[in-house]
């Protein structure tokens, strides 16, 4: 059971949970505020989020290191999108959530976005950074001094 939890308790599951809450809010309290503009912006955000997430994940694959948050990476990835953000995949997840909220006209669910970011930071980023710092030490500290957590 613990091994199953290891693979189920991942950021995409949290993204799906928050997106589900936004979708449910849109069904319970339907609004038609953003119209085609909201749909276009939302679709762009979802598309950009998926592209950024895929591109950032590809760096891990090319470096032959783990992409699973609780697993210790073999290499410190600092190239590509990781030159601008220490967490481009989580940033992409936030963009996807925002895009879905706009597409579904779930504007009251905008409050979920900062909550999602804090949950991701609390459940994943802080632990990942501690694990990476313990493994890479000064190299990770230097990276953190150059590159912000989000943007």
From TrEMBL:
Keywords: Membrane, Methyltransferase, Transferase, Transmembrane, Transmembrane helix. Pfam families: PEMT. It is a multi-pass membrane protein. The chain crosses the membrane at residues 40-62, 90-117. InterPro entries: Phopholipid_MeTrfase (IPR007318). One of its GO terms (biological process) is methylation. GO terms for cellular component: endomembrane system. Its main location: membrane. One of its GO terms (molecular function) is methyltransferase activity. It is found in: Endomembrane system. PANTHER family: PROTEIN-S ISOPRENYLCYSTEINE O-METHYLTRANSFERASE, SLR1182 PROTEIN. This is Protein-S-isoprenylcysteine O-methyltransferase Ste14. It comes from Rhodovulum marinum. The lineage of its organism: Bacteria, Pseudomonadati, Pseudomonadota, Alphaproteobacteria, Rhodobacterales.
